[in-house]
Write a structure and sequence with these properties.
GO terms for molecular function: 8-oxo-7,8-dihydrodeoxyguanosine triphosphate pyrophosphatase activity; 8-oxo-7,8-dihydroguanosine triphosphate pyrophosphatase activity; 8-oxo-dGDP phosphatase activity; 8-oxo-GDP phosphatase activity; metal ion binding. Belongs to the Nudix hydrolase family. Its cofactor is Mg(2+). This protein is α+β, with helices and mostly antiparallel strands and 144 residues long. The chain has one domain: Nucleoside Triphosphate Pyrophosphohydrolase (Alpha-Beta Complex), CATH 3.90.79. Helices cover 17% and strands 41% of the residues. The chain has 3 helices and 9 strands. The strands form 2 sheets. Strands 1, 2, 3, 4, 5, 6 and 7 form a 7-stranded mixed sheet that branches. The protein has a two-stranded parallel sheet with strand order 8-9. The radius of gyration is 14 Å and the shape is globular.
Length: 144
């Protein structure tokens, strides 16, 4: 049974030239080996957009311009409730070169997103933000 208070988290859906940035969690971290949109927990009294800018800077060493809310879902992951709000974002600096939390990063087409193994909290966000076209065949999103 999940805990009563959800963990409030934000994520950045960064787009460029028709591709979307995603990052794979380091194997030694929670949700290790799974892909996600970069971001993290909102601190007490912090606005979601400010938390997202801070988290992306801390994890990837880059600046982003945060746009509109793309999607928000609450997902049970183990014994936790994760309230994930993802925002459209644009790079305000160069591409990330390294990450404190990820072992792989890349730019993917919307169709390629469906071939990655995603963190369960990100799955409903992808389905909302990048609905699978009828012409794309194959497996549904993979997740734990």
């Amino acid at each position: 049974m999940p805990s009563s208070s959800p963990i409030t988290v934000v994520g950045a859906i960064m787009t460029r030239d028709g591709k979307i940035f995603a990052a794979r969690r380091n194997p030694d971290r929670s949700a290790g080996g799974l892909w996600e949109f970069p971001g993290g927990k909102i601190e007490r009294a912090e606005q979601p957009e400010a938390a997202l800018r801070r988290e992306v800077d801390e994890e990837l060493g880059i600046r982003v311009r945060v746009g509109a809310l793309a999607s928000r879902h609450t997902t049970t992951v183990g014994t936790a409730l994760i309230d994930l709000a993802c925002y459209w974002a644009q790079l305000g600096s160069d591409d990330p070169k390294s990450s404190t939390d990820h072992d792989e990063m890349g730019w993917f087409t919307p169709e390629q997103l469906y071939s990655l193994k995603w963190s369960p909290a990100d799955v409903p966000i992808i389905r909302d933000a990048f609905p699978r076209p009828a012409s794309v065949h194959g497996q549904d999103l993979r997740h734990c």
